[in-house]
Amino acid sequence: MITIIPNWHPIFVHFTLVLLTLSGIVQLSLWVNFTKNVQLTLIQTQKWLTILASVCVVLTVATGGYAFNTVNHDEPSHLAMLDHRFWALITSATFLLGAVFYFLLPKLRSKLSSVFFVTAMILVSVTGYKGAELVYRHGLGVMSLPKTTGEGHQHQHDAATEEQDDGDDADEHNDHDHSNAAHSHSEQNDINEHHETATEEFSIQSLDAAKSVKAFQDALKSGNATLARELLDDQVLIYEGDSAENSADEYANHHMKADMEFLSHMSITQLSQHIQQSEKMALYTGISKIEGKYHDKEISMTSTETMVLKQINHQWKITHIHWSN
After folding, report:
1. Is the pLDDT at 27 greater than 70, yes or no?
2. What DSSP designation does 137 have?
3. For residue 289, what is the enclosing H or E element?
4. How large is the average pLDDT for residues 156-168?
5. Distance separating alpha carbons of residues 115 and 254, to the nearest angstrom
6. How far apart are CA 169 and CA 41, in angstroms?
7. What is the rounded CA–CA span in Å between residue 263 and residue 272?
8. Per-residue pLDDT for 202 more than 60?
9. Are 95 and 120 in contact (CB under 8 A)?
10. At how many degrees (to 10) do helices 9-30 and 114-132 cross?
11. Which residues pair with 221 in a beta bridge?
């Protein structure tokens, strides 16, 4: 892969923009009654434009799909990518359908395919604008800028200072106290004891499910993508804001790296934690304060995190995550 660009999509997309625009212009020119020689030249030009543009459209869509699944991005840019992809697929389908009519139905060439070519010319201008938004407004694929998420991600991960919990049943509701550099835990002699004092510290780490939660949080904070992926169930559902990812691989290929980069700049204070664990299922909830500076912006937000875990082959796997702030 050429190192000066993030992927091949920027190369092919510019050819597609030019060729589809020229194809529409030539088609409009064919509707004008020029001299016979000019008309013949335009017809021959349109033929080659249709061939070249069809090839470039296919390559552009293929490389665009690769870029969609590999370029790091945040929540706002992900929504913009979905919008750009929608217009790109509509544009491509319109032109390729016109190309099919052009070559397979020559009798309808001047009437049917011409409408598709002119429509594709209009649509590609919208698609091009949407793509420019991704680069110049969201900074996707720009190697001189961090290719990660910013303030828009509503994530709570590894904690920065102490927290406390007011649970009535310590077998199911336990607290977790830890700092940026090290984690101190005060163990309970009686896990069924009612905790009266708000400042009393105790650990939820004695529960196996909580250990998986903590390991996942630490993996995201430290940038350990391999461990983070291993702790997720293959079919995990991850909700953040208005978006959802439906598998561990989808998350690993989209937001995981961006989340890790964002969290590496943050100081996180755990405000509260609860975990309920049965024989095979567990539910974790947490509230934290996230503060730091990222992309020259001061970040300060309260984040909530919910995880559902299931014991699979004697290992606790995360099957659902919901982040919000």
Report:
1. yes
2. I
3. strand 281-294
4. 38
5. 38
6. 84
7. 19
8. no
9. yes
10. 140
11. none
